[in-house]
Amino acid sequence: NKQFKKRLEMAEVSVILPVYNRKKYIGQSIRSVLSQTFNSLELVIVDDGSTDGTRDVIDYYRNTDSRVKAVYRDGEMGVSAARNLGIQESSGEFVSFIDSDDLWVPDKLEKQMQIARSNPNTIVWSESNIIDSDGNMTGITFTDLSGSAKIRKSGFILSELLKYNFISTLTLLIRKDALSGVAFDENLKISEDYKLELQLASQYRFHFISEPLAYYRVYEGNSYNGVPRLSLSSDIYVLKYIIKNFKDKLKLSAFAYRFIILLLTALRLPSGHGKGECIRNLLKSLGLFIGRAS
After folding, report:
1. Biggest alpha carbon distance in the chain?
2. Closest Cα to residue 80, out of 126, 48, 112?
3. Are strands 122-131 and 205-217 parallel, antiparallel or unpaired?
4. Which of 65, 76, 71 is nearest to 86 (CA)?
5. How does DSSP assign 176-196, residue by residue?
6. Sequence-separated (6 or more) residues with CB below 8 Å from residue 107
7. What's the mean per-residue pLDDT of the chain?
8. How confident is the model at residue 9 (pLDDT cuts 50, 70, 90)?
9. How far is CA 224 from CA 54, 71, 238, in A?
10. How does strand 122-131 pair with strand 137-141?
11. How many whole angstroms separate alpha carbon 8 and alpha carbon 41?
């Protein structure tokens, strides 16, 4: 126990891993963190009430590597609350995130820490490669997936982020102090990372590493291919947040782009799947924007 506490106290980076029923993938995600060439880390796993044997996998690594800390919840509270709890339980000077089906390359943290240590007010992130459910390379990157090849990704990037999200959360490396006063919005199950990144981008510089340092898994059942209505509702929620909090920085062109994309998505929803509610909320956001501009 003394050795366990000592190693946690010495950890420079806390890696937060929320999980719910991911027995198939979580072992791979854990190994990709524990095999980092940068060793001064702790892995804080927050299990959100898994029932599929995920906890057996977590216990194996917790019992074999003192850098692993497990927090078990009995009921599902959602990814935002799980990440927030992980941050609260962390002890590192820096915080990084990985989901239970994604992977890091072995020198991900080492390369990012070289930049983060010499740039105290900078958040470091990187490119990711997209893999399928079996871990096969798809030949595309997160930049390709988000359509952000021409977007500025380093410096003060709030104006770019206000248009749409292009940041791969599993590559973020943030000083824990920067998270003081901000958190993942527990009202959101999707786009919670986007809202947090907007808050951070309003205060800090970002540094983008163009080399892919992570593998983002896209398949039927993960958040990127989530329930259309849930995704749309979350995007509208974030749009309202942007209008209310960044009214002086939100350009008409950026609002129009987001509004049209969301409206077209809403119109494609089948009847009886929250279509009317989504359209009404979109029109409310339009009213907010017009009221802001007048």
Report:
1. 62
2. 48
3. parallel
4. 71
5. GGGGTT----TT-SSSHHHHH
6. 36, 37, 38, 213
7. 90
8. low
9. 21, 25, 16
10. antiparallel
11. 8
Tens digits of per-residue pLDDT, 175-220? Answer: 999 999 899 999 888 889 999 999 999 999 999 999 999 999 998 7
The residues facing 125 across adjacent strands are 208
Report how far residue 3's alpha carbon sits from residue 258's, in angstroms, rounded to the nearest whole number: 51
DSSP 210: E
- Rounded (10°) CA dihedral 85, 89, 92, 94: 10
- Closest-CA residue to 261 (of 129, 157, 164, 154): 164
Q: Dump pLDDT digits (tens) for 33-77.
A: 999 999 999 999 999 999 999 999 999 999 999 999 999 988 778
Alpha helix (H) ranges present in 246-293? Answer: 252-267, 275-293
CA dihedral 186, 189, 194, 199 (to 10 degrees): -10
User: Is 230's pLDDT higher than 80?
Assistant: no
Distances (CA, A) of 184 to 78, 151, 204, 223: 11, 24, 17, 16
Which of 45, 43, 51 shows the shortest CA–CA distance to 21?
51
C-alpha dist (Å) from residue 240 to 42, 202, 229, 253: 36, 16, 17, 16
Give the pairing of strands 41-48 and 137-141. unpaired
**pLDDT over threshold 70, residue 271:** yes
> What is the pLDDT, as a whole number, of residue 223?
53
| Six-digit token string for 156 | 């003060």
Distance in angstroms (rounded) separating the CA atoms of residues 140 and 132: 11
Q: How far is CA 102 from CA 20, 129, 138, 213, in A?
A: 14, 10, 14, 11
SS3 203: coil
The SS3 of residue 66 is coil
Q: Give the span between the Cα atoms of 259 and 74, in whole angstroms.
A: 39
